[in-house]
């Protein structure tokens, strides 16, 4: 995918596209409310990652690539040049522009429970512009090997920030990676650097850095998606097809068939679940790792009622998510977060805008983990 950096050279373009943001389709949930008990913090700050209420989370961050940096999310229709801009405030995991009434992101939902939440991104800029990125350390073009560096950067920022008590504040770190690995996978397959084994080890290494340095942290990893879906978007859309040749060569490699790309993506999905089920990140009580697999079974892009691909979901390059796409993905990610491990949706209908934004389960009001999903009662606190 396209690699981008924010600099003074883009300021003029920012000014031009800023006025167009409000005109783009979006999704919000005005007046969204849950049971009043769900907005209460724990009586005492929990010591277990399996007893963390959503109101207990004080810090949010993210690791990933251009999808997490939100490249092109606010780009005007028909302006692929604006895809170089990183609209981090709109990013589905960590964006904080507007409120939940206007735009769904995981951070905007969490702000309903934890109004003083910090770390979410606002505005347009790159990972090294603190005023914009905050704790969203995603870098366009990143592969799994690159989130190791991002993890170190996130640790350094959190540990040195005067407003974060890194030893005691509960932190949520969102991770989404794999698309760029898959864009190069066809070159070496399971015998090279983008193999399932290497990808898995890179993810483990990055998460281990977080575990070693950030107590009281929950890592939520968005499941890999089946990139054969991109070929559905390209069909009969020559502009999209041409851009994807540049952005994702393996997606345009005819020798890398639909079945090939799908199988490779599912290897990464399997790797994520293997990491979760191994328990290697549940060896201490103050850290955990959870996969949110709602993307796993989707092979059809969002469609209009007439059956055509709904390009409102996508930036002008037909690859990255638009403002609306980020909001819709955020909705499904949040719904996965509040579902128990083992009962999470592994496929959702991207074409249905009426699917609700769900509330946590009042009988198990915690961030759902491998352990509290088995028996929530042992983790109940006042």
Automatic annotation (TrEMBL):
<feature type="signal peptide">
    <location>
        <begin position="1"/>
        <end position="22"/>
    </location>
</feature>
<dbReference type="InterPro" id="IPR038885">
    <property type="entry name" value="PLB1"/>
</dbReference>
<dbReference type="GO" id="GO:0006644">
    <property type="term" value="P:phospholipid metabolic process"/>
</dbReference>
<dbReference type="InterPro" id="IPR035547">
    <property type="entry name" value="Phospholipase_B"/>
</dbReference>
<dbReference type="InterPro" id="IPR036514">
    <property type="entry name" value="SGNH_hydro_sf"/>
</dbReference>
<dbReference type="InterPro" id="IPR001087">
    <property type="entry name" value="GDSL"/>
</dbReference>
<keyword id="KW-0732">Signal</keyword>
<dbReference type="GO" id="GO:0004620">
    <property type="term" value="F:phospholipase activity"/>
</dbReference>
<dbReference type="Pfam" id="PF00657">
    <property type="entry name" value="Lipase_GDSL"/>
</dbReference>
<protein>
    <recommendedName>
        <fullName>Lipase_GDSL domain-containing protein</fullName>
    </recommendedName>
</protein>
């Amino acid at each position: 995918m396209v690699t981008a950096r924010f600099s003074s050279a883009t300021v003029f373009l920012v000014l031009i596209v800023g006025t167009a943001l409000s005109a783009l389709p979006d999704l919000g949930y005005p007046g969204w409310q849950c049971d009043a008990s769900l907005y209460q913090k724990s009586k005492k700050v929990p010591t277990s990652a399996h007893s963390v209420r959503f109101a207990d989370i004080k810090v949010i961050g993210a690791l990933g690539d251009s999808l997490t940096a939100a490249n092109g999310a606010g780009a005007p229709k028909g302006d692929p040049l604006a895809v170089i801009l990183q609209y981090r405030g709109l990013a589905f995991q960590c964006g904080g522009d507007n409120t939940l009434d206007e735009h769904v992101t995981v951070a905007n939902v969490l702000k309903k429970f934890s109004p003083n939440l910090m770390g979410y991104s606002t505005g347009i800029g790159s990972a090294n512009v603190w005023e914009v990125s905050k704790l969203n350390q995603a870098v366009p073009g990143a592969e799994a090997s690159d989130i190791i560096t991002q993890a170190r950067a996130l640790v350094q920022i959190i540990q040195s920030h005067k407003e974060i008590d890194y030893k005691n504040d509960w932190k949520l770190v969102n991770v989404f990676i794999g698309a760029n690995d898959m864009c190069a996978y066809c070159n070496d397959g399971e015998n090279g650097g983008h193999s399932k084994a290497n990808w898995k080890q890179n993810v483990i290494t990055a998460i281990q850095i977080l575990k070693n340095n950030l107590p009281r942290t929950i890592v939520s990893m968005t499941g890999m998606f089946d990139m054969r879906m991109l070929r559905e978007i390209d069909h009969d859309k020559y502009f999209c097809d041409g851009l994807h040749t540049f952005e994702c060569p393996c997606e345009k490699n005819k020798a890398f068939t639909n079945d090939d790309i799908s199988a490779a993506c599912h290897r990464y999905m399997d790797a994520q679940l293997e990491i979760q089920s191994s328990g290697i990140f549940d060896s201490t009580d103050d850290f955990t790792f959870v996969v949110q697999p709602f993307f796993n079974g989707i092979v059809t892009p969002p469609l209009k009622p007439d059956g055509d691909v709904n390009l409102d979901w996508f930036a002008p390059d037909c690859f990255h998510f638009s403002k609306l796409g980020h909001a819709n993905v955020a909705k499904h990610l949040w719904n996965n977060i509040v579902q128990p491990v083992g009962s999470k949706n592994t496929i959702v209908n991207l074409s249905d805008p009426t699917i609700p934004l769900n509330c946590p389960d009042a009988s198990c009001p915690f961030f759902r983990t491998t352990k509290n999903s088995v028996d929530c009662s042992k983790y109940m606190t006042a």
